[in-house]
Design brief:
The chain is mainly alpha-helical. The protein has 13 helices and four strands.
Length: about 300
Amino acid sequence: MTEPTTPARTPLVRSLLRVLLVPVLLAAVVGASVGGPGWIKIRRGDTLSELALKYGTSVEALRELNDLPGNNLIIAGQWLRIGKVPVVTKKATPAKLKRVVRVHTVRSGDGLIRIANKYDADWRWIARRNKVSGTVVYIGQRLIVRERFVRVTAAKKKSAPQYVSKEYARSLVAKHARLSGVPVSLALALAYNESGFQQHVRSSVGAVGVMQVMPTTGEWVGKYLVGRTLNLHNVHDNVLAGIRYFKLLLKITGRYDQALAGYYQGLASVRKRGMYDDTKAYVKNILALRTRFGG
């Protein structure tokens, strides 16, 4: 297959390059799909030795894998390749207090002190809590005899998976590919390889939907390429994000194989280290799939 020559830069692309969006893309966006070895984003306060211990590797291995300087300098916000999928620690969801009470229904022969003794409670507390005058109670009266508050962990709200037919998802991929000037057969092969045209699928590292877009990539594409916030759990926004991102990779590289590698491995990594073996297999598979979709 003959690769396309580098397309002419449009005013939009030249503008993007002038405001340094492409360097931001290369440095901050690892890739829309992280299906191969894992990456982590460095947080404020992280050190290379602590990260090595956490992910079961060594400082030397991390330094070699990421071409880090000898002083082990790492910067918050930087992406670090660790060579395997990181273990994700879930944050504790907020807790709230729930009131739990024990109620006694007064029967014949009951008295306030007798009721208190039955529940190992203070009769004076029962009287105050139920606004009882003295110790007089009546048959059928319902008395709170115990009261406590327990912590209840609130269930974390999750976006419900959006189920759409594979045929519909495929039509959206073809539509957005045509609108964006991306070869339809290539876009279909990419989407099929990523998810099988299934919007409800989620990867173990958080990639979402038909185009298996990482949330950080979706946020970047929405801000700089679309001009609005994108909801990757919506099939329309998911396909739009993936196609727009892939279109930019094609504009920058001018080559199908390089754009696909950038989508999978991250363009900065591809340019710095070349394609990893799993990336080469990924690219080869998608280019072969093009024939299935008329390419």
